[in-house]
């Protein structure tokens, strides 16, 4: 799927990376993994898969589409065992083919294992070239298979030790779940760019990309997996291994701004509470002359509630999201792409007609969807539309597992705020600053923060090895 098709299908937003889930020590491991993945479906809608084990054999099923597309004919009943891992995918690295669906299984002379990955490596191409020169044969274009081959190259021995050595060679954002016959391993990258949590369900141990998955399966959140930590889960319990030196934490801010579900807790902050605070700061620092406040569903509803509380303006449901539009709806012409936003969103004329609307959204990427929503509200009779964005201008693509437009397609990378305002046809437009964004987490201006804000600042926490390799340059470090 090319960039035009992705924009038509998914809208003008960065796409969720992927979601992973793992459970060890439960007789219904595969079924619980399925339900955990249902809670994580927002993180990937292009492919899904589950691998389970009964201690002597591994079972797997995966395919393209939503979970309900992939598991529709009793496939779960064939996934036996007490442990399982699962994955929902959006293709940030590698095309959307059945070969790239995860988990990816590898059979070696030492053992069989399966791996699923949320994130993106910045040195995957560099490593793949090395591995191919050493004789490795790749079946997919996903960077997850690079990690699998690195583990296999470590040879025989304790799997946790092999994984710990292998992941020291990769760089970027990654949250991994790895399953063998009698153990489950969870790994989080040294910067904590991608989220991962540990939970408990009776005697079983559970890991997932977000804590909302625990609520769905009835598990209790124990803690976040620490950056640079490997969890080795067996019948003897959970063993923690630090595979990388402690670094300054750089968790992805956009998890809180847009990606994560509002009912999740990510690295100690509740997502809904953070978004409400972002809205309050917007109202305090960037007020608008409005009569009502409307949030773009669903990710901006919490911020809109915070804006309304702080400003004293009434919060209204002025946009209705049609949740039953087919995920694969492709608009082949500009006319039908314009119609697409009307199929996904409807303005409530009785709410917005004759009103000055303050429209709250979490981000503007290309600006095309924002313009269509502004036009939608005006068409329903809004007198004015004042747009407020609960994040800073999005000026640089992510290299750690979020599928974003190229920099020359990002409207804020090429235009001033006033130029963006004119492009989206709003009466006014303002964004949060990076300092104001960090204030929502309790960090005053100028203080060190444990976040990656590279999409707003162009300051990346790692070197971008593959990017410089693609440009024929020596890899250089461009961020601190």
Label this structure with key terms:
480 residues, alpha+beta, Glutamine Phosphoribosylpyrophosphate, subunit 1, domain 1, Rossmann fold, 2 domains, disordered N terminus, disordered C terminus, Ntn_hydrolases_N, iron, 4 iron, 4 sulfur cluster binding, iron-sulfur
What does it look like?
GO terms for molecular function: 4 iron, 4 sulfur cluster binding; amidophosphoribosyltransferase activity; magnesium ion binding. It comes from Alicyclobacillus acidocaldarius (strain Tc-4-1) (Bacillus acidocaldarius). Its EC number is 2.4.2.14. It catalyses: 5-phospho-beta-D-ribosylamine + L-glutamate + diphosphate = 5-phospho-alpha-D-ribose 1-diphosphate + L-glutamine + H2O. By secondary structure, the protein is of the alpha+beta class. The chain folds into two domains: 19-250, Aminohydrolase, N-terminal nucleophile (Ntn) domain (Glutamine Phosphoribosylpyrophosphate, subunit 1, domain 1); 270-456, Rossmann fold, CATH 3.40.50.2020. The strands form six sheets. The chain has a seven-stranded antiparallel beta sheet with strand order 3-2-4-1-10-9-11. The protein has a six-stranded antiparallel beta sheet with strand order 5-6-7-8-12-13, covered by helices on one side. The chain is globular and about 70 Å long. The relative contact order is 0.12.
């Amino acid at each position: 799927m090319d960039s035009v098709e992705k924009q038509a299908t998914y809208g003008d937003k960065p796409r969720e990376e992927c979601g992973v889930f793992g459970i060890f020590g439960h007789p219904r491991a595969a079924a619980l993994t399925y339900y955990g993945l249902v809670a994580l479906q927002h993180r990937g809608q292009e492919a899904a898969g589950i691998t389970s084990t009964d201690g002597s054999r591994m079972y797997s099923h995966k395919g393209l589409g939503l979970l309900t597309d992939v598991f529709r004919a009793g496939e779960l009943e064939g996934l036996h065992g007490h442990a399982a891992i699962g994955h929902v995918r959006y293709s940030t690295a590698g095309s959307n083919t059945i070969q790239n669906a995860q988990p990816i299984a590898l059979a070696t002379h030492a053992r069989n294992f399966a791996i699923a990955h949320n994130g993106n490596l910045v040195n995957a191409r560099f490593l793949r070239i090395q591995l191919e020169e050493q004789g490795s044969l790749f079946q997919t274009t996903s960077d997850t298979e690079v990690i699998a081959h690195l583990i296999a190259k470590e040879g025989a021995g304790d799997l946790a030790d092999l994984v710990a050595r292998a992941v020291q060679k990769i760089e970027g954002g990654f949250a991994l779940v790895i399953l063998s016959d009698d153990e489950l391993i969870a790994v989080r990258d040294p910067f904590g760019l991608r989220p991962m949590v540990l939970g408990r369900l009776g005697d079983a141990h559970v890991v997932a990309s977000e804590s909302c998955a625990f609520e769905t399966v009835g598990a209790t959140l124990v803690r976040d997996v620490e950056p640079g930590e490997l969890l080795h889960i067996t019948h003897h319990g959970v063993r923690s291994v630090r595979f990388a030196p402690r670094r300054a934490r750089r968790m992805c801010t956009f998890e809180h701004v847009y990606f994560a579900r509002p009912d999740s807790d990510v690295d100690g902050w509740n997502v809904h509470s953070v978004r409400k605070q972002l809205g309050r700061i917007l109202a305090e620092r960037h007020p608008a002359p409005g009569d009502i406040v409307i949030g773009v569903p669903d990710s901006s509803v919490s911020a809109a509630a915070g804006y309304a509380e702080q400003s004293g303006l009434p919060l209204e449901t002025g946009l209705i999201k049609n949740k039953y539009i087919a995920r694969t709806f492709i608009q082949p012409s500009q006319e039908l792409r314009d119609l697409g936003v009307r199929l996904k969103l409807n303005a409530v004329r009785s709410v917005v007609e004759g009103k000055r609307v303050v429209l709250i959204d979490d981000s503007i990427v290309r600006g095309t969807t924002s313009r269509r929503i502004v036009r939608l509200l005006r068409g329903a009779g809004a007198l004015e539309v004042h747009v407020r964005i609960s994040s800073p201008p999005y000026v640089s693509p992510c290299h750690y597992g979020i599928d974003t437009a190229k920099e020359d397609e990002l409207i804020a990378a090429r235009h001033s705020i006033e130029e963006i305002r004119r492009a989206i046809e709003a009466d006014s437009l303002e964004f949060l600053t990076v300092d104001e964004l960090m204030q929502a987490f309790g960090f005053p201006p100028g203080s060190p923060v444990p976040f990656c804000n590279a999409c707003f600042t162009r300051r990346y926490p790692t070197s971008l090895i593959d990017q410089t390799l693609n440009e024929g340059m020596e890899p250089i470090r461009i961020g601190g």
